[in-house]
């Protein structure tokens, strides 16, 4: 096995920038990976995210009967099953991907058979009752084999019926789980969200000519019954992931001498609240949307010129549109002048790790004044001086590891970031990219 260092030493860097092409969007890659696998014929995907989470998803789709390979030019080819699904041998292991496990549970609920889905220790500690309840109401049998309502999840699929379901939490994963189950339902499935969440499933459905009706926060899908939909294969281009781009963006946003261009990034309005918040904090950001949407998704370039940032308030409806960016926004707040209050973000406690306590502990280790709240944190911006290295940990969470690496660009001392292999789950070229942008990483 190839040895990979488990710790990175990242040193301060006052001029960070250049051009970066973020890797493919993780959320869109998951949806296209699942639906491409049951289309008929060959689906091709350019810029599919080749990372731990998506590789685990593809492996599971193969265990269910699809075939996948990459051509020399890096394009993913998925040979779809034409709507069928084989009962796999053993469990489907989705690794660290909550998106894959939740979406696949919904998707498989409409198929005759029994399927067991599991993941790594982090994934086996995340709540699954949120998918059990609606899928059970639709008629699937969902057993949670872990402790306290956690994975492994055993799905016994079968005949599903339409339901009207009000989501108790704003979660695109749960919404999408129900929408995927809806494909095999008899009748209409209606999902009502408490707040708008990312709408990639709606957009991918539309591209595949699966009718979806959206009215504010209400989404309706008419089921195709037990046979499911007949999907034709097609060619996809996945835009860059704004959640990955967020790390270099914050790396440049708070340093006066920095300047960064992010190329080919997804600009879906339900994903770009990070940019609104940074602008509010005084960041100089220019967005150029490319004409035309690729496959229903807005995309374009972002230019960031470094500036002095100031504190802000982040909460309410904004949260679902920047949920994955909160750890790196906490870093932006730490290097800003004044106070930042993050509230209404208790969902952070059930991500790959408890991201509130992980970021509070790490920022405190760096010397930042942070107060932990049940649903967020209060950060007093301002960096301590000193030159002694400080150790921080990822808690096995990719976004915590990358946030702390970016934090190190702003400090006056090196940061030793421990347990960094998790970065592979969403942004395998992260270290290479930040090095190219001027970071000193050992
Ligand atoms: C995702 C939705 C979000 C997000 C996750 C990806 C998706 O989770 O945090 O990284 O692809 O639907 P929730 O919808 O559960 O908040």
Taken from the alpha-carbon principal axes, the silhouette is globular
Radius of gyration from the alpha-carbon trace, in angstroms: 21 Å
Write the CATH architecture name of the largest domain.
Alpha-beta prism
Please provide the count of β strands: 26
Distance between the termini: 21 Å
Kindly name the structural category.
alpha/beta
User: DSSP strand (E) fraction?
Assistant: 15-25%
Main beta sheet strand tally, sense and closure: 4 strands, mixed
At the third CATH level, what is the topology name of the largest domain?
A: UDP-n-acetylglucosamine1-carboxyvinyl-transferase, Chain
Sheet with the most strands: spatial strand order? 24-25-1-26
CATH superfamily of the largest domain: Enolpyruvate transferase domain
| Domains, number | 2
Structural description of this entry:
The protein folds into two domains: 7-23 and 239-441, Enolpyruvate transferase domain (UDP-n-acetylglucosamine1-carboxyvinyl-transferase, Chain), CATH 3.65.10; 26-237, UDP-n-acetylglucosamine1-carboxyvinyl-transferase, Chain (Alpha-beta prism). The chain is 29% helix and 25% strand. The chain is built from twelve helices and 26 strands. It has helices spanning 26-37, 52-63, 98-108, 129-138, 172-182, 200-207, 242-253, 273-280, 326-335, 355-366, 398-410, 430-436, and strands at residues 7-11, 17-20, 42-46, 67-70, 76-79, 92-93, 113-118, 141-144, 153-157, 160-161, 164-166, 185-186, 188-192, 212-215, 218-222, 235-237, 259-266, 284-289, 299-305, 313-314, 339-342, 369-373, 376-380, 390-393, 415-418, 440-441. A four-stranded mixed sheet has the order 24-25-1-26. Strands 2-17-19-18 form a four-stranded mixed sheet, with helices on one face. Strand 22 and strand 23 form a beta hairpin. The chain is globular and about 65 Å long. The model has no long low-confidence stretch (mean pLDDT 97). Bound molecules: shikimate-3-phosphate. The site of shikimate-3-phosphate has 12 residues, from helix 1 and helix 5. Residues 27, 30, 99, 171-173, 176, 197-198, 323-324, 347 line the site of shikimate-3-phosphate (S3P).
